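Hi Y.,

Following your request, here is the sequence exactly as I used it, all 282 residues.
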Amino acid sequence: MVNDQESGLPAITLSGRRRGIVTDLLHCTGIQCRFGDFVATKGIDPSVKHGEIVGIIGANGAGKTTLLNIISGYLKPTAGRVMFRGTDVTGMPPRALARRGIARSFQVPQLFASGTARENMMVALSLLVDPRTSLLRRFSDRGLFDKAQRLLEDYRIGEHADAVVAHIPQGVRKLLDIAMATCASPALVLLDEPTSGVSVDEKNDLIGRLIERFRKTSTSVIFIEHDMEIVREYASRVIALYDGRIIADGDVAEVFADRDVVRYITGAGVAPLSADGCHAPA
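Below is the corresponding structure, written out as tokens. Let me know if you'd prefer a different format.
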């Protein structure tokens, strides 16, 4: 542990941060993202190993989604580098990163509400081959039909294959969206609040199905989650963000045992940091 007394931040857990570009699947260095005068991420160095499941936690505005947007190519960092499989992929567009093995899902599922679950999956699969293929040709392809069904079964939502997306439960929509995003068998999956908008009863079932699938395929995962019990149960490592900085990175039990870290990520009674890294007066 290293205590950053000047910034007033809690001690930083280093057990998960002693990593190297050679051994990491993803290795970011000095990631900074500025929107005018606002700095969303402040020189952070997150990394992920092969097959690792990393939970990202932090209060609203901590920089969590910004980080995922940078890794997945939806934002270009103001400074810093993103290395994936030993190659600098900083600023590459999302489609190029998807071809390299980085998949991304969003808080709100990106689905065709008027189509069935299988039709949605068939569209996602056909886009991997030829984005110009007509919908009629896609839906008449028996091989595509069978592959879509197998993927739905893999995520245990095959029973909803013929259901119109607008009429299926939110948890199933989330699973379908993630199944579509990962149909190319990516090495790294980025999930932005996969359980948001899902009922309490559905949460554990949803995340359990996802983690079961990703562990079976040795897929690395970074997921943002506000439900700390979900993070405790399913993450193999935790990165805690506060005001654009990493304040903890390590073993799940170790991070959650730190009361200061928990206080910062819940946002209870903590003032934002000023430009010099110190707490602004209340």
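The chain has ten helices and eleven strands.

Thanks again,
Q.
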